[in-house]
Batch of 3 targets.
Target 1
Amino acid sequence: MQTVEAFIRGLPKADLHMHIEGSIEPQLMLDLAHRHGMRLRWDTAEALRSAYAFPNLKSFLDLYFEGCKVLQTEQDFYDVTRAYLRRAHADGVVRAEMFIGPQSFTERGVPMESLMGGVLQAMDDARRDQGTSSGLMISVHRHRTEADAMAVLDQIMPWAGRIIGIGMGGAEVGNPPSNFAGFFQAARDRGFRITVHAGEEGPASYVREALELLRVDRIDHGNACLDDLDLVRELAARRTPLTVCPLSNLRLQVVTDLAQHPLKAMMAHGLHVTVNSDDPPYFDGYVTENLVACQSALDLSVPEIVRLVRNGLEAAWVTREERQILLTRLDDYLAGRTEAQA
Ligand SMILES: Nc1ncnc2[nH]cnc12
Ligand SMILES: [Zn+2]
């Protein structure tokens, strides 16, 4: 008899919301620091991991931005991206959509060429060596200015053909999406899809602004939308995907207990909910661990788990043909399981 965890790990899944700079495993963080002759505040992977206790988003972001300092060269960006894609493949991820926020690096003089070169090479190698499909999203920081974001948009244009979308993260409260209306209009004018972190710590009105003012294609997190039932109906009618990250929400105290997580309520409202990892080592879980933890805390049924995984594949920013291939892989996996049980 297969365990729920093995069943979930084997499901062909998407991870549509993760941050490359948030995926540095502690040992890699130490190795990269050593590569550059830097001394971290922690000497061992265990000591570093034990620092991953956060009262809120701000305290996490402080450590996350500190961790960004070890990423300096093209090789570093290659190594962290390749390591995540290897780990995700072992986790059953067949499609990964990854954010990187260039401002953390370019402000310290890291050339955009190093960042893009390393990340794109790792994506190409993961496709060739393990068949993982991946897409790159450029994320801007909402706690910086709209003019700073505009500069990023100009800097990335040489790689526009390799970028599937533009996002926004960082400290949410006090930095509403409306501050970036001009930026996202410019991104859409240049042909990019857009997705914005909203309703993680911020209110439902931020989700509404993202939807109505920025006209996003997806919402990252979106938890707070449940406070506005008109908005929920609008999101459901438009089938706007929400890339929910349950273990992130738990570790950042957005929810105090996974049993209180709104995931199931979101599904009951007909929202297009997907489950994703966000910053896996910091929150102690890749996509499989997120689904396993939700299954047990929220008593999710097998059809509910399959629905979440199917939602993720459907919400991926791929061609119609590739989406069909991904969904067929899921159907084949499920058919194989049924046969094995018969
Ligand atoms: N959970 C999160 N919220 C906002 N910005 C982020 N950047 C990385 N993870 C994030
Ligand atoms: Zn995120």
Note: The chain has a mean pLDDT of 97.
Target 2
Amino acid sequence: MRPASVSSSSHASFPRFWGKSGALRVSSELACVEVKRVCYRPPGTQHSLLNDVSLSLPLKSFGLVFGRSGSGKTTLLQILAGLSTPTSGSICVQHYGDDGSPKQPPETLLPERVGIVFQFPERYFLADTILEEVTFGWPRQKADFSTREQLASNLQYAFSAVGLHTISLEENPQSLSGGFKRRLALAIQLVQKPAVLLLDEPLAGLDWKARADVLKLLKHLKKELTILAVSHDLKELSALVDVSWRMEMGGILKEERLPV
Ligand SMILES: Nc1ncnc2c1ncn2[C@@H]1O[C@H](COP(=O)(O)OP(=O)(O)OP(=O)(O)O)[C@@H](O)[C@H]1O
């Protein structure tokens, strides 16, 4: 899937590899997360939830998948995060040269390089302190000391990135405001320094102030990260979106401009 051949007519005024200013991104480092012809049928069922899904998302851009409830949006994120295995198809990172041709064989996108923030992440907070919450999934064996050390050094970066650096790590996560709980959920993922961040309904359940807060934060994170979100909040997210797709019932994905 070469980027030069995939800009759809629905995005004609904003071709995939042109910045919003209209300036062509001149970079020999152009790379995309690519989902190629992914199908998914849960084990033991006859019903396919994803049908021949393909997409190409340039690194450090913001992609949005929208569509009706039950169409398969969350299923796609779960596959990208490595939580479910596709029945067929592949997920990789492809680098391109200036002429638009692939520079080297595609790299498999390893689940360790993908962070996912589920819908209503605060419902899954378990710990009594922010520190325990963030370190909950860290490896605990003696042999993992250097990994823990690395994660600890990432922690400061992650908390600064989401604007939580002034909050005490001893605070109870449940005492945070709605917007700050979402920041914490994002920080837990950022500590792992993911290449790709997946967000399932990042604004759901937040009041107007927290929504504005999270939008501002995503705008900031987009400068450094490749983000793929699933959402019904199209209008609010539209300013962030570089490329969008509609998921149709039956797990059929089509590139389409946001209907806002
Ligand atoms: N393990 C599974 N086995 C069978 N069906 C499943 C399984 N997981 C999800 N489904 C079904 O797959 C369909 C797609 O679900 P999914 O959660 O991906 O939709 P969605 O587009 O994210 O919906 P929403 O916008 O409501 O979150 C739904 O009909 C759901 O009931």
Note: The pocket of adenosine-5'-triphosphate is lined by residues 42, 45, 49, 67, 69-75 (CB under 6 Å).
Target 3
Amino acid sequence: MIEKTDLSFERAVLIGIVTREQDEDKLDEYLDELEFLTYTAGGEVIKRFTQKMDVPNPKTFIGSGKMEDVHQFVKEEEIGAVIFDDELSPAQQKNIEKILKCKILDRTGLILDIFAQRAKTSYARTQVELAQYEYLLPRLAGMWTHLERQRGGIGMRGPGETEIETDRRIVRDKISLLKKKLATIDKQMEVQRGNRGQLVRVALVGYTNVGKSTLMNVISKSDVFAENKLFATLDTTVRKVVIRNLPFLLSDTVGFIRKLPTQLVESFKSTLDEVREADLLLHVVDISHPNFEEHIDSVNQILTEIEAIGKPTLMVFNKIDAYKPEKLDEDDLITEKTSAHYSLKEWKKTWMNRLGDNVLFISALNKENLEDFRRKVYEAVREIHITRFPYNNFLYPEYDKYGEKK
Ligand SMILES: Nc1nc2c(ncn2[C@@H]2O[C@H](COP(=O)(O)OP(=O)(O)OP(=O)(O)O)[C@@H](O)[C@H]2O)c(=O)[nH]1
Ligand SMILES: [Mg+2]
């Protein structure tokens, strides 16, 4: 595994910009998420810097005055990492590093770092490593100045272009090696998937931290790692589940996020094969999150990217126990009623109504409405099952509660 930026106990500041497409409220929400990502990576956010601009500065992303403020703060407060919400170009990253003289990360770098920390199996590690090298390649020149500065002193001449070229070649070789390694594992996995027989395959998909693994555990009585941090799951777990008389395969996999780095989507292609090859998707949503609608869009966008959109899908709105609409007093005639004030009942009448029967409202944690969940999943799986195997003998005999055959 290549070096990762260690953010453990690191004091960090966040930087984001307000643009025409992204007003202050939106930026706030995005920075909340970036703060959660930083916390997941082990860092602590001390301050946020924001700036209004039409277009980012091509050299330093934010303007020079603002950069000076950040510089002062970094010096005075002993900040170890400065994290940008947007993707920085390799040149921007290099320039900013020169000014601030501390770790500079963008959103992609931060997400890659979390993936690197969390990858447990050699398969996940290989995929992350490939993504890291792809990210590193165009940034190599910048990295050298970094090393140069760190070592400094006598006898340390700046690296010539040739050394950077050598480095690029090494990284390129490494990338093609990792790709070959992944291709071999992919073949093995394909065979494994083929061996699973003809059972209907169901995949849990959704934004990170919405409760996919918790739901998997509840439904399949398994023990998949779940926690209140982002990207708890990086590997796919597949379990055989039986509802009433119907067996099927349920898989839990990596969560999605807004602007998931393309390097990661690409190198996690085979992990995501499970989603691509699924017959039915359970799109899990954290309805207690203020941005849940945007999360749905991000997930759909990634599903489109991996060519998994348009499959039969059940929308599973989870965490109903934690859903608290904002209060609107009856005599309050000034505050405009927005979706933040909707009760669950009101939500059901919105665009959710158009989803017809394909919606569910549950709490995986409190095991609320799980009967409804089982029934709807059963019906959807059965539908697929009987169209695929009209003369099928997979359906187990149904037993009543006394254990008698029906
Ligand atoms: N209040 C509430 N919390 C829940 C519910 N379901 C899950 N959680 C919590 O949400 C957090 C994330 O749960 P996970 O199951 O790890 O979520 P995930 O979707 O698998 O996350 P990633 O693997 O990171 O993509 C945990 O702290 C869970 O305890 C629920 O119904 N209600
Ligand atoms: Mg998970």
Note: Residues 206, 208-214, 226-228, 230-233, 255, 318-319, 321-322, 363-365 surround guanosine-5'-triphosphate (ligand 1) (CB under 6 Å).
